[in-house]
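Quick question about two entries, pasted in order.
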Amino acid sequence: MFKMPRVVPDQKTKFESDELFRRLARETEVRYTGYRDRPLEERRQRFQAGVREGHTEMAFMTNGTNMYLQLATGFNSKEVDFEKEPGKVHLRSCFIMNGVCVRWRGYVDLERLDGVGCLEYDEEAAAEEDRFLREEIEKYKARLREFEEKQRAFRVPTTSHAHHAHSHAHAEQANIQVR
């Protein structure tokens, strides 16, 4: 079965030329958007709990783009770092957005629940997804060739000679005159 590709053919060009990506690639103000109806202290607790569980919601304040980030947690995780800077958590999250492999990178102040973040082009993930895309395209082409070969095998041969002989027989019948 053909799988729909997850990425566009030239991810880097799209990342560099697409207006949304260009805006999100600049470091800009970000804010935690979860539980906005709750008191600030509860939001702080829920933010930290969510980050430790491996997820959070962030928004780019300059254009209102909201993202649900999945974070790898655990002993050797480089995606969540509470130790790098006191009072802040540094985050990284890799995902595919609009057909391009990207990495969300930034930090959030644990008191104010805002900070600075940006999107970066994820070269390693893009190379892996490109390889997968090329494999899927080759599989699709092979299946298409196989299908076309089967179609040719089942077709009834219609040559111009057979068609001509059949037409000639009808013509002879039409020329018979009864007296």
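Here is the second entry:
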Amino acid sequence: MKNYKDLNRGQWAELKLNEVSNKLPNKIVSDIGSGYGWFRPTVEKFNLQWQPFDYISKIEESTIWDLNNPAPENKKRPGFVVFMEVLEHLSNPELGIKNISNHIEKGGYMVLTTPNPLSAQSKFSLFFKNNLYAFQPKHLIEHHVYVPLPHVVKFHLENNGFEILEVATIGRLIAPKFTFGFNYIKGLVHYFFLQLLVVFIPESKGHTQTFFVVKK
């Protein structure tokens, strides 16, 4: 599995958009979970039309869309969908993917990211706390209610008309900054333990998992 160790989610999504920008069925980009519009400049850099959606409107441009329901009426079918850090918040993830599949134009592309439940940090947390790193009880306040295991996410996508073009991870382990004291030693031991996990279990690389797909 490829690891984009030097990119963040936005940079990876821009990389994928750049790869297919001249093959899109239209110029509409649906940004699902658009937040405060941080991806808008990237969309407009490619001379595409940004169409934002969110569960709770944070900016006046966005349209409310509960993914338990079909896309709002009178919205354009996109040629590209941005769906990042949303799937893990859905109580019914397959229904959400189905509604996105019905929204996207045939031949359209989607970038999807979630926390990586198989990351080294997640395995460490499971071993010592009996909970995955981003899916502990404290994360329920953020409505992290779906653990997006990669083979299950792939099943949901393929079951709803998407072809998987790439599955990858983003991010790398960062060594603790040197300070005097016990906490630095503790952090260093933790860092080397995670590095061992990455060596022996390569899919543990990266704190974020990504899926790049096309609607068949």
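Reply: The chain has one domain: 2-215. The mean pLDDT is 93. Hope that helps.
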